[in-house]
Amino acid sequence: MKPVWTKRAVRRLSDAVIYIAQNFYPEYASAFQADVASTVEAICANPEIGVEAFPYLKRPEIRKLLCKNKKWFVYYRIKKDVCEVLSIRHALQDLADSLSGL
């Protein structure tokens, strides 16, 4: 299975990398980006690895997996031959705005 990144996921990853690089260290930003890439690879190898992201919405195809750093989630949807990466969110971020458009 191959990953397909939505515009939202690309934008959120890019914004997070820039924020981390500017406010902390560029090395942290690189490590974060590598962690997200590794998580997406794991998802593509085993799409059922994550848990249902929003059980109360009854949308079992939308799943999430916590990155190795234990601070960021990758939200994704399993489709026929692809794993659609929907978003990247910090574990402490409010999800209310993430629900629109899914």
Describe this structure in words.
The chain is α+β, with helices and mostly antiparallel strands. It has one domain (2-91): 2-Layer Sandwich (YaeB-like fold), CATH 3.30.2310.20. Helix content is 36%, strand content 26%. It has 2 helices and 5 strands, in the order βααββββ. The protein has helices at residues 7-23, 26-45, and strands spanning 2-5, 51-52, 62-66, 72-78, 82-90. It has a 5-stranded mixed β-sheet. A hairpin with a 5-residue loop joins β3 and β4. α1 packs antiparallel against α2 (26-45). The longest helix has 20 residues, at 26-45. The model has no long low-confidence stretch (mean pLDDT 89).
Main features:
alpha+beta, 2 helices, YaeB-like fold, 102 residues
By secondary-structure content and strand pairing, the structural class works out as alpha+beta
What portion of the residues fall into strands of 2 or more residues?
25-35%
Q: What name goes with the CATH superfamily?
A: RelE-like
- Which sequence of SSEs, written as H and E, runs from N to C? EHHEEEE
Average of the residue pLDDT scores:
89
What's the layout of helices and strands?
Layout: E1 2-5, H1 7-23, H2 26-45, E2 51-52, E3 62-66, E4 72-78, E5 82-90
Parallel strand pairs: 1-5
Antiparallel strand pairs: 2-3, 3-4, 4-5
What's a quick, concise take on this entry?
The protein is of the alpha+beta class and 102 residues long. It has 2 helices and 5 strands, in the order βααββββ.
